[in-house]
Amino acid sequence: MRGDQSSITAENNALLRAHEAMRHESERICYDPYAVYFMPDRILSSADRTDQIEITIADWETHFPGVCNSILARTRFIDDCLEEALQDGIQQLVILGSGYDTRAFRFRAIRERATVFELDHPTTQKRKLAIIQNHLDWNASSIRHIPIDFAKEELSEKLFSCGYKDRLKTLFIWEGITYYISAFAVDRTLDFINRHAPSGSVIVFDYFPPAVADGTTRLPEARALREGLKRIGEELLFGIEPDQIFAFMEKRGFQVVRNLASRDYQQAYCKRRNVSDMFLFVQATVSR
């Protein structure tokens, strides 16, 4: 992503969720009634918005078969993990690379029980806040929007300066981020969480195998997506071998609770739809 533009993938993911919200309740993988406001401007300004949404989704499914449904399943999986965390009494929610995440709007219990910290690149966050102000008329003191350049600024400084408390049980959401950052940045983020969140705190994230990031994968949709992302300046950099995820997380002070491969989340969320094997989801707890 260039520094002067908001995240294109974040806008596209919002479009995808908006399209899913148009489906009948019995057919939805997930439901985000607010996603429509955060779609790309070319769609928002279109006179035939619904047709443009349908055309775009069909085009994506042609070029990247299964990817859209995997992204929707990811949203649903994280929603489920959030509901579990709320039942377990979390007091803080940290969304790393929040993009156009709307969970603070969709889950009333978050605003009532926890402080929410949304961190993202200043340009993307600026667009999000403008849309919230213009369309959602939303103002909640429990939500802290924190602009950050993850490549240049320290997560610890940003969070602590905005009221983060390392004694409180916390859920960290890291959705659609790990494969865009370096191995060093991944380790630095996990190290912060392990050192500054109490035992029992939870992290939820998705990841790709290394072959997807380096282009050696045999999955045609993964190769096509990698090239498409590269063209818009959102290059893939990092991956984890699925059979190494438990050891990878344990070495960094976490215990994996769930590691979902495509067959797992297809069975759980979208039995009648195709998915891509490139996406894997993890839920882990701080275990020090």
From TrEMBL:
The keyword Coiled coil does not apply. Its EC number is 2.1.1.-. One of its GO terms (biological process) is methylation. Keywords: Methyltransferase, S-adenosyl-L-methionine, Transferase. InterPro entries: Ppm1/Ppm2/Tcmp, SAM-dependent_MTases_sf, SAM_mthyl_Trfase_ML2640-like. It holds the Pfam family LCM. It is an enzyme of class 2 (transferase). One of its GO terms (molecular function) is methyltransferase activity. It comes from the Bacteria. The keyword Transferase applies. Belongs to the UPF0677 family. Exhibits S-adenosyl-L-methionine-dependent methyltransferase activity. This is S-adenosyl-L-methionine-dependent methyltransferase. It comes from Desulfosarcina widdelii.
